[in-house]
Design a protein that fits this description.
Shape: elongated
Bound molecules: phenylalanine
Number of strands: 10
Oligomer: single chain
């Protein structure tokens, strides 16, 4: 029996040495319930009581050796597989990559953000208002009653009789003054809508930035000083302003404001159409009616308001001669900014 055990051990160890893949079959063949070692143990009944523990111990040793050989081999096989996998999946980090295309902000967003930055630097905060607006905020509270001729130039998209797509950012003035008592210092950028036919300088959707300052003792000269600071930071330190009288129902007095052409400095060129000046905004002192509509006493407080078109400024700055380009999202165009 000793020889049988010895033989089983040698056969098993040889078989293990010679295979990478059949370890489980070998385990079953030698150590399984019906395996060779088990059947030897079953035959131990014929042994004398003195021989039994000796053979029993030997059989256990054989089993332990085979098991050890099996697990050692299994570990080796796994290690080899891992090494092969690592070798096969090796990446060369020095190889050139495919560079993914990075986008950037739309020119209108860039202009909007740089305007915002300057006003934030002067202590303004940003107010927001809805694009779908009540007639009251877009017109009535701004001193534009029903049938007022000013509505004609701004007739917009009505949703119901008294709800419309806002035609200007000025309704945010009213919403701000209703919510907040002076001192007020806000700007409000956003989309506005007018039922204009599309051409090189018109679009039914465009962008404005509204500004509003209300406090005790605010005068037109505060506005001029602030506007000059803005224009010189935005267009260049040599920029001059020109105020032309104008009319807006919600400001009194009102003005349209031009900046000296930032391309030719005022001599006259293609960008300013030889005028030397470029119109950039409408503005004025907040009309006393508007202040009272919002519950602010016009005998105590005064303020100024202004509104500028972002497209106009972007087009002048970048020398874009057709507004439609700003909305077509043609990457060949947008890439240039
Ligand atoms: N809302 C006016 C426009 O769209 C601009 C403006 C704003 C004028 C504020 C005066 C004060 O033309």
């Amino acid at each position: 029996m000793k020889e049988t055990l010895q033989r089983i051990k040698e056969n098993a160890l040889t078989a293990i040495r010679n295979t990478d893949t059949e370890l489980e079959q070998i385990r079953i063949q030698y150590l399984g319930k019906k395996g060779e070692l088990t059947s030897v143990l079953r035959g131990m009944g014929v042994l004398s009581p003195e021989e039994r523990p000796i053979i029993g111990q030997l059989a256990n040793e054989v089993r332990a050796e085979i098991e050890a050989a099996l697990s050692e081999k299994a570990a080796m096989v796994n290690q080899k597989a891992l090494e092969e996998k690592l070798k096969a999946e090796k990446i060369d980090v020095t190889l050139p990559t495919t560079v993914s295309r990075m986008g950037h902000l739309h020119p209108l967003t860039q202009v909007q953000r740089s305007i915002e930055d300057i006003f934030i630097g002067m202590g303004f905060s940003i107010a927001e208002g809805p694009e779908v607006e009540y007639d009251y905020y877009n017109f009535q509270a701004l001193n534009i009653p029903e049938n007022h001729p000013a509505r004609d130039t701004q007739d917009t998209f009505y949703i119901t009789d008294n709800i419309l797509l806002r035609s200007q950012t000025s309704p945010v003035q009213v919403r701000t003054m209703e919510k907040q008592k002076p001192p007020i210092r806000v700007i409000s950028p956003g989309r506005v809508y007018r039922s204009d036919a599309v051409d090189a300088t018109h679009s039914p959707l465009f962008h404005q930035i509204e500004g509003l300052v209300v406090d005790k003792g605010i005068t037109m000269s505060d506005f001029k000083g602030m506007m000059e600071t803005f224009a010189q930071q935005f267009f260049g330190s040599d920029t001059k302003l020109r105020f032309r009288p104008h009319h807006f129902p919600f400001t009194e007095p009102s003005a349209e404001i031009d900046v000296s052409c930032f391309v030719c400095g005022g001599k006259g060129c293609r960008v300013c159409k030889n005028e030397g000046w470029i119109e950039i905004l409408g503005a004025g002192m907040v009309h006393p009616f508007v202040l009272s509509n919002c519950g602010i006493d016009p005998n105590v407080y005064s303020g100024f308001a202004f509104g500028m078109g972002i497209e106009r400024i972007a087009m002048k700055q970048y020398g874009i001669d057709d507004m439609r380009l700003l909305y077509e999202n043609d990457v060949r165009f947008l890439e240039q900014f």
